[in-house]
Amino acid sequence: MDKSPIQPHNAGQVVNCTGSVLMQIQHPPCDTGDESITQSRLEGRAFHEVTERMLIAYKPDGELVSRIQTIGSMSKDNIVITDEIFDAAEDFANDVISDCDGMLSKMVVEQRIELDHLFPGVYGFPDVWVYDEPNNHLIIWEGKYGHSLVEAFENYQNLTYVSGILEKLGIDGHQEQSLKVTMKIVQPRGFHRDGPIREWSDTAANLRGYFNIIKAAFNDAYADPKCNVGPWCKTCSGRYGCETLQRSAMDALDYCGDVFDGSLSGDNLALELRILQRASDAIKNRLTGLEAQAISELRNGQQVPGYQLLQGTGRKRWKRDTPVEEVIMMGDMMGEDLRKPPELITPTQVIKKGVDESVINLYSETPMTSLKLVGDDKSAKARQTFK
């Protein structure tokens, strides 16, 4: 069968909204001309590419990846490998190598996993996984280069991969009882309270319920699809054509317009906060979808009364191939020093280079920023604790 539109990376979206699959087929992404989105995706691919090269270097006949030779080189998508991309890939690779000590030959990097047991035509490419057979322990890694935080607990992309790996390994029900599964999210640029590397461990037997949920959702996406509004709408290309999201956003506007006098506290305060935050998210997701549609139509010469396109610009910056010494010399001729004063690299970068963290702590600080209200998902924490 041909490749299914359902893939591991959108498994969480499908589980929460089975209607998202057909909605995205009917309403593909709009062409907004936003090159920054394409650039960020290509940088993410470059991050995975460098990580893969670093890990394959530890395989037989592998070639070590030199920092000097890599930084400034081009990825397969013609993206310049920057220090930031290299550092992120190095953090990812170092964690894998640390856990795979003595098992580097068993490490599986970017290899296809068939997922037909969940739905015909579904397959994926887990970033890295290794099966420690003597200790009956499966570890899987998924790297994320973006800033939007991704949780390890109940991560359906990793769960989908684990389901396929267990099928590939032929793990039976008896072995599942004692097989430990560790699922990791490596997000070097994600500022999370648990750090850039987060994990969730459980037995394979306890994960079986999640596999059943995934399989049921994948099948319902075609047999009985239903749309459900939530955070997953943000990444759904079909949100601009989704009647469910439209009605939710309109209901939210009606609710927000109903102002009454009186202050709240305790449970009542918490309840209204949750209702309004959910309403705000629904409006934002609907708004961004409609904005993308409007930009696409205007780019194609169609009329959207009351709106026009205006090309935005960022801060002026040097071109990548700017001859630095030439510009500095030009400034010297005019009596102006164009050189940038020398700066220390960041404390975190210094620690990564091997300097004792306790020493660096004497010279560095972590400033406190303003207080931020965040949701406290006690139900998820409780499930994770008791599992």
SSE arrangement:
Layout: H1 11-16, H2 20-26, H3 35-56, H4 67-70, H5 83-99, E1 108-109, E2 113-114, E3 123-124, E4 128-132, E5 137-143, H6 156-169, H7 173-176, E6 180-186, E7 197-203, H8 204-223, H9 243-256, H10 266-299, H11 324-333, H12 347-352, H13 357-363, H14 378-386
Parallel strand pairs: 5-6
Antiparallel strand pairs: 1-4, 2-3, 4-5, 6-7
Helix pairs in contact: 3-5, 6-8, 9-10
Characteristic key phrases:
two-stranded antiparallel ribbon; 5-stranded mixed β-sheet; globular; alpha+beta; 387 residues
Could you explain how this protein is built, in words?
- By secondary structure, this protein is of the alpha+beta class.
- Helices cover 45% and strands 8% of the residues.
- It has helices at residues 11-16, 20-26, 35-56, 67-70, 83-99, 156-169, 173-176, 204-223, 243-256, 266-299, 324-333, 347-352, 357-363, 378-386; strands at residues 108-109, 113-114, 123-124, 128-132, 137-143, 180-186, 197-203.
- A 5-stranded mixed beta sheet has the order 1-4-5-6-7, sandwiched between helices.
- α3 packs across α5.
